[in-house]
Amino acid sequence: MTSANGAEMQIALAGIGTIAKAQHVPSIAGDPDWHLAATLSRNGRIADVPGYQSLDAMLAAHPEITTVSLCLPPVPRFAVAAEALIAGRHVMLEKPPGATLSEVRYLADLAQANGVTLFTSWHSRAAQMVPAAKAWLAGKTLRKLRVTWKEDVRHWHPGQAWIWEPGGMGVLDPGINAISIVTEILSEPIHITSATLEVPENAQTPIAADLQFWHPSAEVSMVCDWRQEGDQTWTIEAVCDDGQMVLADGGARMIVDGTEQLADGPDDGEYPRLYKQMADLVRAGRSDVDLAPMRHVSDALALGHRITVAPFED
Ligand code: NAP
């Protein structure tokens, strides 16, 4: 069915909070393939878009909706995702795709059983220079890779209680973005060998983390910290036998041996790229379920040595 605005695909957005408003709504609006037909949220609304508080009611009122994109926090996401898949709708998941690996595996099976698409999106992989970094590393012998992911939680996640609760992942919620890039650009397998997690005395999840990974030829490590004020740092530095590469600003910039690299084309933005990917997956009748970033975070939480630090006050 084609909508009034000519878009081929009718989509609903669930969990109208920070990222839905900042990225999903404008990306859908700017993509001629998609039309935002309705939203599902207890409190959040988008002007001029019908809003619902239950998936059932939304799908009953809008049978034309074929895709549901979920921006809820990871813990409450599973129930809505499962219901949408069982109702025969394609599902796109914000990162991290769920609270546990097992529940997302189950969602993948449900998608297959119902003949619909499941897309576990990783927005940082859609950053402008990630493909160039992957191409630069291909065939080189990596000796060292250092991730530094330091940002101010009060600026990026004000008032979000869920990030401090079990399943919220704490600083590994942004940290998983770095891991999603690392697992995309490295062709070799890695796994966590040790982790230190600094957990505020009034929280269940870490405010800072230091991770070490096994890699066949390189020393691979990552530090992430949510207490960084002023300049924010989202950097991946790679040292190879024949050169050095820095992926900066979360993957938006790439510097090779000290020289800034030019992008191939204009920066379309991470989320517009994700919605193009989703449209391609739906048209091709395929799913894209990559749990690697989440596996490493689960392993860090399983192996992590916890240090209790000062309570966090928002
Ligand atoms: P948020 O601002 O807290 O919004 C999430 C929305 O989900 C809430 O506004 C809430 O809307 C709904 N919700 C339903 N059940 C909930 C529950 N039990 N607890 C809390 N909210 C509930 O979160 P967000 O920052 O948009 O993050 C959502 C997802 O996007 C996370 O997985 C996060 O990792 C990812 N993400 C966030 C950012 C960012 O910078 N914030 C960037 C990229 C990706 P109602 O009250 O209306 O139901």
Describe this structure in words.
By secondary structure, the protein is of the alpha/beta class. 31% of the residues lie in helices and 27% in strands. It has helices at residues 18-29, 55-61, 74-86, 101-113, 130-137, 153-156, 172-185, 270-284, 292-303; strands spanning 9-14, 34-40, 51-52, 67-70, 90-93, 118-120, 142-150, 191-200, 208-214, 219-225, 233-240, 243-248, 253-256, 259-260, 305-309. A 9-stranded mixed β-sheet has the order 14-13-12-11-7-10-9-8-15. A 6-stranded parallel β-sheet has the order 3-2-1-4-5-6, sandwiched between helices. The longest helix has 15 residues, at 270-284. The protein is globular, with a radius of gyration of 20 Å. The site of NADP nicotinamide-adenine-dinucleotide phosphate has 22 residues, from helix 1 and helix 3.
The structure class reads alpha/beta
SSE run:
EHEEHEHEHEHEHHEEEEEEEHHE
- What low-confidence regions span 5 or more consecutive residues with pLDDT below 50? none
Q: Strand sequence of the main sheet, in spatial order?
A: 14-13-12-11-7-10-9-8-15
Report the sheet-strand fraction. Answer: 25-35%
Radius of gyration: 20 Å
What distinguishing features does this structure have?
binds NADP nicotinamide-adenine-dinucleotide phosphate; 6-stranded parallel beta sheet; alpha/beta; single chain; 314 residues
Strand-helix topology:
Elements: E1 9-14, H1 18-29, E2 34-40, E3 51-52, H2 55-61, E4 67-70, H3 74-86, E5 90-93, H4 101-113, E6 118-120, H5 130-137, E7 142-150, H6 153-156, H7 172-185, E8 191-200, E9 208-214, E10 219-225, E11 233-240, E12 243-248, E13 253-256, E14 259-260, H8 270-284, H9 292-303, E15 305-309
Parallel strand pairs: 1-2, 1-4, 2-3, 4-5, 5-6, 7-10, 8-15
Antiparallel strand pairs: 7-11, 8-9, 9-10, 11-12, 12-13, 13-14
The chain binds NADP nicotinamide-adenine-dinucleotide phosphate.
NADP nicotinamide-adenine-dinucleotide phosphate binds next to helix 1 and helix 3.
